[in-house]
Design a protein that fits this description.
With about 190 residues, the protein is mainly alpha-helical. About 55% of the residues lie in helices and about 5% in strands. It has one domain (about 5-185). It has helices at about 10-15, 20-25, 30-35, 45-55, 60-65, 70-80, 85-100, 105-120, 125-130, 140, 160-175; strands at about 5-10, 180-185.
């Protein structure tokens, strides 16, 4: 058991019926989840930020995808609020967070496309990344062989496979009429 990261879109309900058939093509690995969480774990520049620096790509839209307020989390926050004023602040912050991500599909797609283009051009990416002495990502295997798909779509994916799965999800989300994408943890 562990924490997983799931891609979501604002028209997710319409596509959920056939998502099981696409699980291996759209899933992100637990290692990708850990990669997204590294900025809360290591002191210094986390690997994702290092990748942004090495490629010249602004990674911020990926981190922004973590800010979408899910209904369950919002319900819990509202239940813990001590008064109506605090509940109103929580609701206003949720609306602000949603508005900041509204229509981000094109930006996120561009970011993933840039990573898919630039990362294969970097020689020996694992040796260029500083794990800060705390290698929970299996840097050598996760960031190696970018063009290969070693996993089954979820287990044992490398970074390249996760990004290709991410891109397939974005394509499907766009085809379904979605305009906003975000992460859910669970």
């Amino acid at each position: 058991m562990g924490l997983d990261i799931h891609l979501q879109a604002n028209h997710q309900e319409e596509s959920d019926a056939d998502e099981l058939d696409l699980f291996d093509q759209h899933s992100l690995s637990r290692t990708f989840c850990n990669l997204m969480c590294r900025r809360n774990v290591v002191e210094g520049e986390p690997e994702l930020d290092q990748i942004g620096r090495l490629t010249g790509i602004d990674i911020t839209p990926l981190y922004d995808m973590e800010n979408y307020p899910c209904d369950k989390s919002l319900e819990m926050q509202l239940a813990l609020a001590e008064n109506d004023e605090e509940r109103e602040e929580i609701l206003q912050q949720a609306e602000t967070d949603k508005a900041q991500l509204d229509g981000n599909l094109a930006v996120v797609t561009s970011l993933i496309d840039q990573l898919l283009t630039k990362l294969p051009q970097l020689e020996d990416l694992p040796s260029r990344l500083n794990d800060h002495g705390y290698d929970t990502l299996r840097d050598i295997s996760y960031f190696a062989d970018f063009a290969q798909d070693p996993g089954d779509g979820y287990l044992d994916n490398n970074f390249g496979q996760d990004l290709r799965n991410f891109r397939r999800f974005l394509t499907r989300a766009q085809q379904q009429g979605s305009t906003t994408v975000y992460f859910m943890y669970g």
